[in-house]
Amino acid sequence: MNALTLVYCVAGFILSGWGVPKLVRYWLNGRKASFFALILWIPYFMMLVYITAAWFPITNPADKPSPVTGLIAIAGLALYPFYLAILHLFGIASISVEPGEDPVT
């Protein structure tokens, strides 16, 4: 099960790294307004944490995760805005076009 979870996480990381810049280019035409996602992820994160804690409370002490799990979660949360920023930078970066090539196609 751990291997399957790792495969899904890596596949999601790769697909989002490929797909988000394409969506930023398609929907926002490379405008810098796409950086609002770097700010808007904070309320979504807060809602997700609240809903998860409310719907899935830890009532049994055996359900508590190991202490290292918290450190991994903190590192992931600290790096996520940088990951979003890099993806958005790739999304707004201009695409170099060869001379004589049609930029639309």
Helix content: 55-70%
Order of helical and strand elements: HHH
Overall average pLDDT: 80
Unreliable segments of 5+ consecutive residues: none
Number of strands: 0
What does this structure look like?
- With 105 residues, this protein is mainly alpha-helical.
- Helix content is 70%, strand content 0%.
- α1 runs parallel beside α3 (67-92).
- The termini are far apart.
- The relative contact order is 0.15.
Please outline what is shown here.
With 105 residues, the chain is mainly α.
Write the layout of secondary structure elements.
Blueprint lengths: L1 H27 L7 H20 L11 H26 L13
Question: What structural keywords apply?
Answer:
105 residues, mainly alpha, 3 helices, 0% strand, elongated
